Amino acid sequence: MQTDALLWILLPLFIAAGSALLSYYVMQARMEVAIAKEREVLAEARAEIRTQKSTMEERVKATDQESRRKALDEFMQDFRVEERHYFRENKSLAARQKSMVLQERLYFRNIPLSNWVEHEMVVEEEGTDIQHIAKGCSVFSTKALSDDSKAALSRLLEQASVTQSASQLAAAVNGGKVS
Predict the structure, then answer these.
(1) DSSP 3-state of 179
(2) Statement to judge: residues 73 and 87 lie in one domain
(3) Phi, psi (rounded to 5 degrees) for 62
């Protein structure tokens, strides 16, 4: 009878220990699922933060470049060239020479950056274009290419493109190996 009594005493303890162990494993599995979901949410949040950080850095760089470009443009707009010209006539016994004197000076806002640069150009008396002569001799203005230099430049570019296409053809014939 003692074994029966012992069995009736140990059986509830054994069932209680089994139930505790079973509830421990169930709760552990629930905690692992909850942790996995939290890690997933955390990974998504970190990825979102990384993308926002990179886009913010790109925006800051773009804004910085834009502000620098705008500041440089505003700075360059403050430079100007002041021009003045007048005509000078030299009379001698043998010939009469009429010339145009062009004076230029570079300014930053209203501060002169250079002294007057003077050019004297002989003007033919008939059929001359005064503005064309002034622009051709200007120190501070950009000079356009003449027709001769345009033709020479186009020939040079054409030769360069022919040379490049020939080297590409040779590379294709050699199977991509350039020797």
Answers:
(1) coil
(2) no
(3) -65, -40
Residue with tokens 């059929």, as numbered in its chain: 127
pLDDT at 178: 44
Q: What is the DSSP track for 119-161?
A: EEEE--SSS--HHHHHHHT-SSSPPPPPHHHHHHHHHHHHHHH
The residue type at 172: A
Instruction: Give residue for tokens 């089994």.
Output: 18
Q: Are residues 69 and 125 in the same domain?
A: no
Q: Which amino acid is at 166?
A: A
User: What's the domain range around 156?
Assistant: 152-179
| Contact (CB, 8 A) for 82 and 109 | no
Q: What is the tens place of the pLDDT at every residue in 117-164?
A: 998 888 765 444 556 656 666 666 655 555 566 666 566 666 666 666
Q: Which helix (H) or strand (E) holds 85?
A: strand 79-91
What is the per-residue pLDDT for 60?
A: 96
Q: Which of 12-26, 72-86, 115-129, 137-151 has the lowest mean pLDDT?
A: 137-151
Instruction: Mark whether 109 and 138 lie in a shared domain.
Output: yes
Q: Name the DSSP letter for residue 100.
A: E
Please tell me which residue, 12 or 164, carries the higher pLDDT value. Answer: 12
